[in-house]
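Inputs:
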Amino acid sequence: MKKILVTGGLGFIGSHTVVELINNKYDVVIIDNLSNSNIDVLNKLETITGRKISFYQEDVSNKEALRKIFAQEKINGVIHFAGYKAVGESVSKPLMYYRNNIDSTLSLLEVMEEYECYNLIFSSSATVYGNPKSLPIKEDFSLSTTNPYGTTKLFIEHILNDVYISNNKWNITILRYFNPIGAHKSGLIGENPRDIPNNLMPYIMKVATKELDELKVFGNDYHTSDGTGVRDYIHVVDLAYGHVLALKNSISGVKIYNLGTGKGTSVLELLHTFERVNGVKIPYRIVERRPGDIDACFASCDKAFKELGFKAKHNIEEMCLDAYNFIKKNTN
Ligand code: UD1
């Protein structure tokens, strides 16, 4: 498998995965409609990798555009990142989320079948575990969701299972991400939301650069060591490399893996680590819980380690250093 189509390849996780793919001698073709990414990322990817990258500014739901790409590029496999991902927005605009995330995946699968390309890696999320009954979370835990964004991920997982049942030529890998943060060491690519961030690390980054005044910590009465929410933060470069391992190990079936570190970190631990390693102050205030948030969530990574040889290498300190390095270089 040589040539990989990356949908949403200019986004946060997509762009880091493009770098790891090229580092591992894959040819990469990117399709991205720039709805939540910036064309500058393409130049930055070319700077980091020293390679010219084929890019199509198209929507994944556009089957004609996909057919042209498949006809022209002779794609061997696809990594599907493209999709809307803001939890709160998905609650207020569910139809937009279902239409975009499901429709684009159906178009992609149909065109892949037409071109007999049966290798797919799908970008899913730990959100499909809902509120887990115990920790760490294993891949065979029961699934449920708390918002339309999460439900699109779960529906797509079901669709992929049915597609495999219909034709067992498919090699499908579903990767359930925990909380990716950090950035490439170069500081050229990273996460820089256009609007006020929903997620913790992007918010901390904007407080660090004084674009926002203070972090609001959503609740300190959770059943955790310091009362603040605990999550499994994983360096985006480790996560990206997980896709390379998934490609190398693709076999017939639907394989499902958690990608995390297996270690939980609280909001205050992350915040204080960020302050310490970067020598900056992050003012914060404890406020009400955010609706839908759970106490703690971290992965069992045993399956990904046993079957893919996956193990995250970066610790929380490095995640905080790399995130700050990126935001300093990309803030006016
Ligand atoms: C969220 C989504 C999840 C999605 C993931 C993508 C929810 C309920 N879940 O996960 O579906 O896959 O993002 O990365 O939104 N926090 C603060 N202040 C903030 C922001 C966050 O205290 O300004 C806290 C949260 O309460 C939580 C932790 O930080 O305890 C992490 O939050 P976040 O980064 O939004 O990730 P998740 O909620 O785990």
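The mean pLDDT is 97. Flag for discussion at group meeting.
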